[in-house]
Amino acid sequence: MTTIQTATGPVDSAAIGFTLMHEHIFVLSEGVIPNFPHLWDREARKAQAVKQALEGPVTPDCPASILRTRSNVRLYLDSESASMLAGLF
Q1: Cα(77)–Cα(17) distance, rounded to whole angstroms?
Q2: pTM for this one?
Q3: Distance from C-alpha of 60 to C-alpha of 43, rounded to nearest angstrom
Q4: Backbone CA torsion sign across 35, 50, 87, 75
Q5: Is the CB of residue 20 less than 8 Å from the CB of residue 30?
Q6: Residue 47: is it exposed, middle or buried by C-beta count within 10 angstroms (0-12/13-18/19+)?
Q7: What is the DSSP string of 32-47?
Q8: What is the Cα–Cα distance from 34 to 68, expressed in whole angstroms?
Q9: What local confidence, expressed as pLDDT, does residue 28 receive?
Q10: 80 with 47: CB under 8 angstroms?
């Protein structure tokens, strides 16, 4: 029996079943990207962050959004980063 050490003690690995990595853990082991490509789409994640910063609410949850309150800010984006913005491309 293979066991996995958990916060509550050892657990039989068969009892755990399929488990995904935690969203905040950055793992680049050989099998992760081919098996979970949707989790590693950097361009889509970057485009979503730009959209949130420029079109979402000004909030501490998105620190870059504060730039919208300034008149002297220029933002240079490549087409992929701007791909989710409404009406710009």
Answers
A1: 43
A2: 0.55
A3: 23
A4: negative
A5: no
A6: buried
A7: HHHH-GGG--HHHHHH
A8: 37
A9: 63
A10: yes
